[in-house]
Specification:
By secondary structure, the protein is mainly alpha-helical. The chain contains twelve helices and no strands. The relative contact order is 0.08.
């Protein structure tokens, strides 16, 4: 579905549209003022960082070399006989925008940018409006993607996780990929989230200058969103299988009963310490969380573990406990993690 690779950001020439002095107007020098800058960033919010601008300039230079076109060619002189010019014009407009944001430029360069925008609005008016709307929606959903280093990290992480989690087959590209045996459900969820963000990055980085490409992108995004929704609920069968993979001893009902009682006692002790305003050592905090996670698995394996309400609450608690455990291990500090009603654990299995 995606062919996204993160290109390394290299050094590019400061001006790809010719020397700055050649663009000066007699007796007058035009500067990129705040209004123009704000207008450019409203159209290209992904260019807010210098690294993003360098990358788009580098891409433009490479594309000009591939097509045999001068970098400072005027829009009316572009001739691409066997190719539609939409993608190149979009790339040129973006490269000029990046150049305008980097340093003071002449009125001629600004007019080139306006000529590109006029061409786009004239030749692909509907697509341009839809593209702008989709880009706004993506950044509203994933505001961190406005940062270039975040987009770059997501692309690299996507490639790394794809290589780690999927079987490496030599079959046709349209064959659905298969997770390797032993992939945890949580890993599948995280990959689905990553893939959705990766599709969003594709829109911001590459753009969609034609209606067909926009529709293809929307199909990719909707498919990724649907895949994420399908993984929003952990099936009880999978939950029980993974519980026994983590803790084979939980197959014994007596062991399950004991771990739930131990978890309840541990949280009751922490609750008492909290009421006396005593600090909880990080080691005890860590043990409480790990014990609680095992108690969640014990409850999943109980005869009534498939109750819908308990499943939902259990999955919510598991996410919270894992997040708190990760934070605790990162900070190496003592802290608190008290359930709203820790004694409710005793209701999870028949006594």
């Amino acid at each position: 579905m995606l062919s996204l690779n993160c290109s390394k950001i290299g050094t590019v020439r400061p001006s790809i549209f010719g020397p700055l002095s050649s663009f000066r107007v007699t007796h007058r020098r035009v500067h990129t003022n705040n209004d123009i800058r704000a207008s450019i960033l409203s159209s290209h919010p992904e260019l807010v960082e210098e690294s993003s601008r360098k990358r788009i300039l580098e891409r433009y230079i490479s594309e000009c070399a591939r097509l045999g076109i001068r970098q400072n060619i005027e829009i009316g002189k572009i001739r691409l006989p066997r190719s539609k010019p939409e993608r190149f014009v979009h790339l040129k407009a973006k490269a000029i925008a990046a150049s305008l944001l980097d340093e003071e430029k002449s009125g001629r360069l600004l007019r080139q940018y306006q000529a590109c925008k006029s061409w786009i609005e004239k030749n692909t008016p509907d697509v341009e409006k839809l593209y702008a709307a989709e880009k706004r929606a993506v950044l509203q959903r994933f505001p961190s993607l406005v940062a270039s280093h975040v987009r770059e990290h997501i692309l690299k992480q996507y490639d790394a996780e794809s290589a780690r989690l999927f079987e490496q087959s030599e079959g046709p590209d349209d064959q659905p990929r298969k997770f390797v045996d032993g992939t945890w459900f949580a890993e599948r969820q995280k990959f689905a989230e990553l893939e959705l963000q990766c599709v969003a990055v594709h829109l911001l980085e590459d753009g969609v200058p034609s209606k067909s490409e926009l529709e293809e992108w929307k199909n990719d995004f909707d498919s990724s969103l649907e895949a994420l929704k399908d993984l929003s609920v952990l099936p009880i069968k999978v939950e029980r299988e993974e519980a026994l993979r983590r803790y084979p001893d939980l197959e014994d009902p007596e062991v399950r009963r004991a771990i739930i009682e131990d978890a309840t006692n541990a949280f009751e002790m922490a609750r008492t310490a909290q009421s006396k305003k005593k600090s909880v050592p990080s080691a005890i905090h860590n043990n409480c969380l790990e014990m609680f996670l095992k108690a969640l698995d014990a409850q999943a394996l109980s005869p009534d573990g498939d109750d819908a309400k308990r499943m939902k609450l259990r999955q919510q608690h598991r996410v919270e406990a894992l997040a708190d455990l990760a934070e605790l291990k990162a900070s190496k500090k003592g802290g608190w993690w008290i359930l709203p009603n820790p004694l409710a654990i005793m209701d999870w299995i028949p006594i």
